[in-house]
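Appendix B, record 7
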Amino acid sequence: MHVFVTGGTGTIGSAVVAELLAHGHTVSALARSDDSARALTGAGAQVLRGQLADLDVLRDGAARSDGVISLAFGSDYSTGEALARSIAEEGAALAALGEALLGSGRPIVTVSGTPWVPGRPSTEADPAPTDGPVGGRGRSVNALLELASRGVRATAVRMPRTVHNHGKGGFAGLLTDQARRTGVAGYPGDGTQRWPAVHALDAAVVFRLALESAPAGTVWHAVADEGDAVRDIAAVIGRRLGLPVEQAPQESFGPFGPIFAMDQPASSAHTRQALGWRPAHPGLLEDLENIQP
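Structure tokens (predicted):
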């Protein structure tokens, strides 16, 4: 299968590109910079130059492919407005990619986030949130999944709060970055709230399996760790960086503050059973030991 990938040089995307190539697929990937283009070429992928906002480029990439994996998302989370712009850009991109596949029966796999459900781990059967700081992402993914009725094998892989590799990535990576800036390994709330996690190399397998065989309109959870306590995450970060570990005000974490403070474990029992997925790489707390002082 020839697969068009957006976001192919990120923590998740680079692992997905490698996973696809290792299993006999060919890949063309969107590159917005010379550095991204070099990284993709070095990995063995073809390059399609453009930005996520270049909707005609996205349509062309999808039209020339046997399937699409959409992973690209903006990197500016500094303010609520910046986050909203990234969500809107992603939504427009998904709509354009889906439009290019109408009536073809070809697959598109997009990325989403695991939902949060009071009192228990969320499952694949729980709906995505469509309100709150990231509600726009849920609405965009739902719109894509609805294209299953219009001849698109659209599926979504929900990612946990931290997708990690060598101690980097996800919400835990944001905590590490903030600790380096502030000199304190801080955590919001009382730190008992749980965040799910997955190693990027394990997550990549779920994307490949969904692309190859998942039925249209289905949702999957790439979750290896059902929920690590945020205080435990901060403790490893503090120890690795030689910094004190302290509770910090929710507002000090910017637009992610309300999300950081939530207890949000997630299950992947259905994904493991239905797709035969078996995570094989280190869990988050073990992987955070790779943080360099």
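Remarks on this record: The chain has a mean pLDDT of 95. The longest strand covers residues 107-113.
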